[in-house]
Amino acid sequence: MAKTYEEINDKIKKGKAVVVTAEEMIAVVKEKGVRAAAKDVDVVTTGTFGPMCSSGAFINVGHTKPKMKITKGTLNGVPVYCGLAAVDLYVGATEAAEDDPLNRVFPGEFRYGGGHVIEDLVAGKDVRFVASAYGTDCYPRKELDTLLNIKDLNEAILLNPRNAYQNYNVAVNAHGKRPIYTYMGILRPNIGNANYCSAGQLSPLLNDPHYRTIGIGTRIFLGGAVGHVIWQGTQHNPGVPRTDGGVPKGGAGTLAVAGDLKQMSTEFIRGASFRGYGVSLGVGLGVPIPIIDEEMAKFTAVSDADITAPITDYSVAYPEASGGPIGEVTYSELRTGRITINGKEVPTGAISSYPKARKIAATLKAWIEAGKFLLTEPIAPLPAAESGYKFGPLKERKK
Amino acid sequence: MFSERILMQFPRELVNEPLLSIVTKEFDIVFNIISARITENEEGQLKVELRGKRPNVLAAVDYIKKKGVSIRSLSKFVTVDRKLCTDCGACVVQCPTGALYYEEDLSVGFDAAKCIACELCRLACPYSAIVVAHADEVTHV
Ligand code: SF4
Ligand code: SF4
Question: Is the pLDDT of residue A10 over 90?
Fold first, then answer.
């Protein structure tokens, strides 16, 4: 029996919708079977929290008097992109502070950067904006040094070109002689540890593996507020190998998302510093999945035991873009804290936060149960596996 | 009053020596045992806080060292700032002693008694949630 978005939204408005988290759905389907679960459950909520480097915020600071067409600027010492109209700028999550020693003293600390500027804005802290311009007849002013606060900005929009990766690598250091410092954390030599970064069974795109309900326009939880999916994310790559259940065996789909930064909370928007790598932004994101039919009930019952991730060497294979994974492992194995690679027991650590993912799914569930959050039918789908859409390498050339 | 927290590693043959009672008498200091255990290879591991006049405490530490006990200062106190911690676990996998660990619900727990203040967790934490304080800031009376 199929349900429409309208029927589900009607139930939500009446406070009668049955909403469970993706974690709870596993037990529901186990107990009642797919058929009954599809009938009883209206919405399954998902969540994920982790560093998402391809993130940033557009802000409009308002016009100065006299007016200025800002060409260069920093927020708390972090360069921001000003190549837009006069007072629009983009704060990129991974931009390091201007005076950061970077990796000159290796491994660099990267204490403060774009991700932290965004967190400070969300926290309501004043942020120092220093800007310059060449001056024009219509925009004569050339210098500016002022404090900004998010509440005074015209707009502050979190706009992330790539978030919520559908599955990801498990990172190890197989050949390096020393610890290596990566965006997947510190990896000790000789496969001393294995780091992973996915909410697995709670992760949005792993619960809708063929993008049947998540598409352009989908209303989501973003950083503690309401946001939307605005496009497929960059590097969206639906055509990767999948399990019989449709789950991609490695990084696949991605989402581009946007939301009002002014409504967000530092509980779910956090500047991050990765030793020897750089700055990033910890983003909390959750997507509600309408159970429109039995197939969606089946997909949302996916558990950590059904999801495998490729074990990837970050000392040679990843940086050199050569060689495939050295093994695969399920998320239920990863979550025990120990896995076996080539006969060796290796401790596992997460870079994403499972407790926060759980909290996001629970928060979204509470919003929907309270009738505060309605579901949206996508206005256009994300490219699926059959589309042939793929993610390719750069072909370097001179002409 | 000066205070120093140390981790003492006793070789097997010294496990039964009353070293601490000797130094308290000799150097006029007091001690407070934080934890004590015998490791798998039958070495003794003792975490103590020594208190007394600064030169006396330092002389006592020196005496214990000369007896063949290896000593590591625990004057650094590691704590996890729960307000900043996201419960990811990037630190857990680096911790050599199990002081940081996953709880049943996958949140991250911290057992200060097991911490040797190596600070590996601090390097690994992306959210600056590991705070290292020095004894000079907290225990000088
Ligand atoms: S300082 Fe070392 S022993 Fe203490 S919690 Fe951190 S990693 Fe573990
Ligand atoms: S790495 Fe930092 S944020 Fe993550 S669990 Fe450890 S202390 Fe908390």
Answer: yes
